[in-house]
Structures are given as structure tokens and as C-alpha cells.
């Protein structure tokens, strides 16, 4: 288990991380999600040991890895890392990339040459590069390079695998494929993984648990489905779920939007922090558009964007602008149309999911 | 998964060594900066100090004496005229070539580039020698002119005009080097945006391209200015016979003249020259700070201007004629004239002989020993710079704080200072490193060695630093997360990747040290002559045929070395880096 305890990091007068606490369980797959400059890369570099914290400690299974005074360097930590740019060495073949950590990593193969070769073959097979063992990076495609980078990181069976936006250099098709590949590797190696990304879709799809960061602070730590359906802060609501933050009043019966007090929306699992502030975070797909004569909050459609599987409407409601996603099978509206807006009656989130 | 945790005791030991390292870090930093101060900055301070001191007391005497002489002002005037003229010439040629090579569609640009660099890798005193042969009575220029009607004569190179011409031709490659990438990095979209905003090509050039290229042009111009100010070989070869002095040759004359106050007078002149040079360096530093904005842009070397086939041919032909006439022809002339038996006899078959080569390499013992001296000096200077300079570049790259920046600035000073001034600094520093104690460094080959290391160190630091910048930091990080540290990381990952960049820096150091003239002309002693000193000696004694023979061998050696370097670089890229 890796424990990040009250860690801060300053660069001169700029504070990149504000007292971060985080626990990474054995075999857990954690995604660290946030916009650029939120401190997620700093966190990753601290976990790797490329630098030390200004305050606080990082420990792995009761071994102190880093404090403000001493830092165990990366080469002595039991870790593996996959870089955004792959960081393949142009002068080494695929097999040499895998052999390298097997010769120098703290978990290096201490037995004979035969065991070393066996392990190399095993890893090559795991990432599906048996036929490419003697190729150089310049002779590989983007996806193959990514596999080499993964193979090098997992070869010595590290306790902790760090991934710094490993998929962002790939095109969309390949990214989907590599997501599955990484999930497969996680299943087979059972290493703890910290996966840094700014792509919320990627984080939701791949991780057991997501850490959302913003401006050097952790906003929320939760499994993907909880994070998406029950955000606890405005940042998480808008960054992860793209929520509309509707202002109004929380009463016993439900939520009364300020814009039209004739409506009462049921509580579909809104966090307490929003109730105190009089806000209802509504995701675009939770809204339902009807003709203006129907009940609901009244608005005017200002933009319509056809997306294939759904239609994105921008609707002016009083002073506010809401984003609403509707199915292509629902009735269509044009810019300038008056519409009624109501909440879809999605079931309240199951307790079992929350406490998973 | 099996994971072995280090034993508790083992871990404790390891931890304590870390904290010790962090405590010692500041100590190392201070020791390092102190050493850099002693080797790079202190000699300069001692020179300035000496210009104010007589018999232990501070005095303005030498300043009033030197500044009161009309000869000083005549020299300063010559210096300013020559430096201004040659800087303008270098700027015009350099910017013209870089703009054409960067923007206009031409074939054979790579070959053209090689010829542009030729006057840069051949030491300027050899270029001068070649040009004097080119324009001599038995040279091709006079031969062509005598064919033409009228009584035309080749212009006299031993004049202010001749010095300006050779300085300009020797230093325009520097301007080219600085500006060609600046032009390439100006995004073509900016010109296209200007065009769609209704600007003609000419106005777009004036309003968009030129302002963006100006920082590069200005810093290239300042480098040319400094090099012209610093140059000793050209004014010494061309100016001395015509009694034209510039500051660098005047200082030399003071020192070798051994008057009663020779050193102090030379120190005063050096301060004047150094002040002019440092003003330029500071100005250049400011300009480089501003031009950094451009560095993130991608370099775009596809042509932007397409000429009609006829015009393109015409342009190519005229560029080639210029390049061949200015770089190759004088060298070929020099080679040819080194084969004639006596100076001034016509160039024909009866007069051809290897007599000059026989004299230089068999009869006279000096050239061979100078060759040995220079090769040894260059090799060991390169070796020291290679190891320590690369280590310094790594620190500069890894910890870009005030201490490494200050260190780099200190290291730049010996290189930025004019060679005669720097040589004088070395004498003052190492004659008596601690007042009252003469370890006998001055007057041996050791002072040359120390001087060369101090002077050329920064070239290796810059070369290696550029090499570090070109590899992604994640290459090293990947090595560390794979468990490699220390020597393994360097040997297996960093050095193979850095090799071409470090090698080109080392080769530059080697070449500069091998053919160096200015510093060694003041620091040599009997038995420690360098190549430059011997050629200079022949020339001063009037033995042009011997100096041309020696120079021809040297040029052939340099060209072969250059070819070897380029093929090693290509081979490394292909075989090791798999490019």
C-alpha cells in the first residue's frame, strides 16, 4: 500500500500541491484526473521520486520513500513508469528495452541468463510483440511503441506502475484499443496503477477509483460511477459530468428552481454540499425537452448540434444558458423554438453502489 | 509478485548517505564556483588591477601616458574603421546568404552550406595567406587582369580595405549561422496573413519578416563585431607590413617590445579593448534574451519563394561563383604556389618542385615539433573540456539556478575577450599565481595548456548543453525508473544519445586549439611553439613559400578531419540511433 500523507510541493512562491492525502491499495487502479496545471503531474513525479515534497511524507508498505529531508531516488524504488512520449531509447531493440530493467531494477532477475531470456519472452508475449523483438523504435508504429513502453515498465513486476497520460500521443481508434490492453495488463500483473489523465472519458472507463484534482487540491476521490452521478463539488460536477449548475431552493419535497417556482424537482442523489448552497447539478442528459405548451421551465433554443447518437441543444433559460442532450429519437427542435424543460425521472442511486 | 524490501538497517544507512549528500551539496557548489572564479575570472581582474598599480600603489599614470599618445588614438581610430567596415560586410553577406538559403528554391543547398562554412573552419591567418597568394604577382587574379586591355592591377591587400575584405569574408559564416534558423523559424503563416491582409511581398518582408528576424540579425552582427575586434591574424599579416595597427596587434607589439613598462601599457590598452568587447557581449546577451520567444517555433526549411527556371539557374550560378572564388580558389592558389621553387617566379612546369615541403618537414625542425605540440595541446585540451565541460553542461541543464548561470557567464569571459587581452591575463595570473611565488608555469607549455582549456571550455559546455536540450528528459527518467543510476545510466542511455552533439563540441575545441594563433603568439616559449606561431614566424621573416607549404598541409588535414567527422556522425546516426 502506498500512503501519501499531508504532502505539499512548492516551486518558489508557487504552491503546486496543497496538503495532499491519498492511499493507494495493493492492486488498485487509480486515475488522477484534472485539467492541465492542476498538480497531477507533480503528484506523479513525487511518487516516482524525481523530486521531493516540501512537506509531508510518502511511504510504501511502511518504508519511507520521501519526506522533506530525504528522498529515495527513483532507481531504488520498486516502481515502473510509462511516459507520455513513450521515452523509448532509439539505440535499443524491443528486447533490449525489456532486458534493461530486468538487469538493473530493484526487482532484477538475479538468476541465470536462461531465466532472463524466459522472462523477456514472457513479457513480449504478454504485450503481443514476439515478432518484433529485434526491431528498433524507429521501425515501430505508434501502438507498438506504446506496447514497448508498457512492457519495459511491467517487466520487473513493480509494486507501483505510474502512467503519465500514456494514451494522449495516440489517435482515437488506437486509444480505445490500448485502454483494453492496459486493463488486461492490470488484471495479469496485479500491480497498483496510478494513471494520470486529463480525459474524463478515459478515467471513467479504465479506473477502479478516480482522484479529481484542481489547483493543487484533491476535489473528490470516488469510484467512476459515484463520481459521475454524485459529484460533491462544483468543479467535479462541471469537469466530469458537464453538469448545469441550476440555482434554486432545496425544500423537503425537493428542489425549486429560482427561475420558475412552479416546478419541483425530485432529489436524484444530490450531495449535501450542493443542498447547502442551493444548487442542483443537472447533467445534460438528465433534462428532457418538450413543446412549450407542456409543463416545465420555459426556455428558447439558441443552438442545435447534431452528434449522430444524440443531439446537443443550447437553451437560454432566463439569464442562464443550459446544455441539454436529447436522444435522436425524441422530438426535434430548431433554434428559436420555445421549449419546456423538465427532469427525467432517473431512479435514485442505489446505496450498494455508493458503499462499494 | 515477489517484492524484497530492503532490511531496516540497510535502509537507514542509505538514508543517512542521502542527507549527507544534501548537506554537502552546498559545499560542493561553493568549491566549484571558487575554482571557476580562479580559472576564468580572476586573471581578468588581475589584468585590470595591474593597469592601475605601480610598485604597490594605485596610479593613473599608465592611463594618462597611454591615452596621451597620438599613436593610441590612431590605433583606436583604425580599429573602429576596420571593425565597422568588416562588420557591415559580414552582415550584408551573411544575411543575404541566410535569407536566400532559407527562403528561395535552389538545388544543392547542402553543398552550398559546406562552402559557406569553409572560411570558418580554416583559421583566418591561413585564409589571409591564401588570399595574398591569390592576389600576388604570380597569382591568377593578376594573370586574368593582364589578359584584359588597359593596365589593371590587382588591388593591394596590405591596406585597410584589404583587412576589411578578409575580416568580412572570414566572419560572414558566423552571421549566416545565427540568422539562417531565425529566418526558417518565422512561421510562413505570418507572411500569408500579411498577404491576405493586402500587403505586397516587399512590404510583407519589411513589415513582418525583417522585424522578426532583427534579434537574430543583431546578435549575429554582434558576434561578427566581436570576432572582428578580436582577430589578430588578419591585421598582423596584412597590417604590419603596411604599418597599419589595430588594438590587438598594438598590444602584441607592446608585449614583445619588452619596454620598461610594457606589461602595464599593454594592460591599459587591453582594458580599452576589453571594455569595447564586453559592451558588445552585454548588448548581445540582452538581445538573446529577447529573441528567445522565437525558439519554440518549428524550423521550416521548405522554400517559400519559387523562381522561374532561368532565374533560378542564374542565381545558383552567381552564388556558386562567389563561393568558389572566395573560399576555394585562394586555397587552391596557395596549394599551387607552395609548389613553385622560389617566390615570384612564374607558375609553370619547370618551376614546380617539392623543395618547400622538403625544407619545412625535413630541414627545419620547428614545424614538426610545432605540429606535435599543437596536436598534443589540442588533444589534451579537448579531453579535459570533453569530460569537465560535459559535466558542467549536465549541471547547467539539470539545475538551472543562479550558481550554474553565473558559472556559465564566468566561463564565457575568456572566450569573449580578445585573444591578446586574454593571453595577457594569463601571463599576469600564472607568472605569480600567489604574489611572490613563481611556480614556473609561464615560459613552459603548461601556460598554453591552461589558457586553451580556459578559453575553449565554454565551447564544449555550449555544445554539450545543446546536446542535452535535444534529448527528451523522459529518456533519462525512464532509465531511472528502470533502476539504472550513475555510470550505468550514462554508459547505456545518455552517452549514446549525446555522442554526436558532444563530439561536435569536442571537435570544435580541438580545431580551435590546433590552429590557434593569437593566444600562443604571446604565450609561446622556445620549445613550445604552436602551428600558428611557426607560420606567423615564417611570414614575418618573409618566407612566404614555407608558410604556404605548411598551411597547405594543415588545410588538407583539417578538410580530411572534417570529412571524417561528418561520416562518423552519419554512421552513428544510422548504426546506433537508427535514424
UniProtKB/TrEMBL annotation, chain A:
<keyword id="KW-0547">Nucleotide-binding</keyword>
<dbReference type="InterPro" id="IPR017871">
    <property type="entry name" value="ABC_transporter-like_CS"/>
</dbReference>
<dbReference type="InterPro" id="IPR008995">
    <property type="entry name" value="Mo/tungstate-bd_C_term_dom"/>
</dbReference>
<keyword id="KW-0067">ATP-binding</keyword>
<dbReference type="InterPro" id="IPR013611">
    <property type="entry name" value="Transp-assoc_OB_typ2"/>
</dbReference>
<dbReference type="InterPro" id="IPR003439">
    <property type="entry name" value="ABC_transporter-like_ATP-bd"/>
</dbReference>
<keyword id="KW-0813">Transport</keyword>
<feature type="domain" description="ABC transporter">
    <location>
        <begin position="2"/>
        <end position="240"/>
    </location>
</feature>
<dbReference type="InterPro" id="IPR027417">
    <property type="entry name" value="P-loop_NTPase"/>
</dbReference>
<dbReference type="InterPro" id="IPR050093">
    <property type="entry name" value="ABC_SmlMolc_Importer"/>
</dbReference>
<protein>
    <submittedName>
        <fullName>ABC transporter ATP-binding protein</fullName>
    </submittedName>
</protein>
<dbReference type="InterPro" id="IPR003593">
    <property type="entry name" value="AAA+_ATPase"/>
</dbReference>
<dbReference type="Pfam" id="PF08402">
    <property type="entry name" value="TOBE_2"/>
</dbReference>
<dbReference type="Pfam" id="PF00005">
    <property type="entry name" value="ABC_tran"/>
</dbReference>
<dbReference type="GO" id="GO:0005524">
    <property type="term" value="F:ATP binding"/>
</dbReference>
From TrEMBL, chain B:
<protein>
    <submittedName>
        <fullName>Iron ABC transporter permease</fullName>
    </submittedName>
</protein>
<feature type="transmembrane region" description="Helical">
    <location>
        <begin position="30"/>
        <end position="52"/>
    </location>
</feature>
<comment type="similarity">
    <text>Belongs to the binding-protein-dependent transport system permease family.</text>
</comment>
<keyword id="KW-0812">Transmembrane</keyword>
<keyword id="KW-0813">Transport</keyword>
<feature type="transmembrane region" description="Helical">
    <location>
        <begin position="549"/>
        <end position="572"/>
    </location>
</feature>
<dbReference type="Pfam" id="PF00528">
    <property type="entry name" value="BPD_transp_1"/>
</dbReference>
<feature type="transmembrane region" description="Helical">
    <location>
        <begin position="409"/>
        <end position="431"/>
    </location>
</feature>
<feature type="transmembrane region" description="Helical">
    <location>
        <begin position="80"/>
        <end position="102"/>
    </location>
</feature>
<keyword id="KW-1003">Cell membrane</keyword>
<feature type="transmembrane region" description="Helical">
    <location>
        <begin position="437"/>
        <end position="458"/>
    </location>
</feature>
<dbReference type="InterPro" id="IPR000515">
    <property type="entry name" value="MetI-like"/>
</dbReference>
<feature type="transmembrane region" description="Helical">
    <location>
        <begin position="319"/>
        <end position="345"/>
    </location>
</feature>
<keyword id="KW-0997">Cell inner membrane</keyword>
<feature type="transmembrane region" description="Helical">
    <location>
        <begin position="114"/>
        <end position="137"/>
    </location>
</feature>
<feature type="domain" description="ABC transmembrane type-1">
    <location>
        <begin position="371"/>
        <end position="565"/>
    </location>
</feature>
<feature type="transmembrane region" description="Helical">
    <location>
        <begin position="208"/>
        <end position="227"/>
    </location>
</feature>
<feature type="transmembrane region" description="Helical">
    <location>
        <begin position="157"/>
        <end position="178"/>
    </location>
</feature>
<keyword id="KW-0472">Membrane</keyword>
<feature type="transmembrane region" description="Helical">
    <location>
        <begin position="377"/>
        <end position="397"/>
    </location>
</feature>
<feature type="domain" description="ABC transmembrane type-1">
    <location>
        <begin position="76"/>
        <end position="284"/>
    </location>
</feature>
<feature type="transmembrane region" description="Helical">
    <location>
        <begin position="493"/>
        <end position="514"/>
    </location>
</feature>
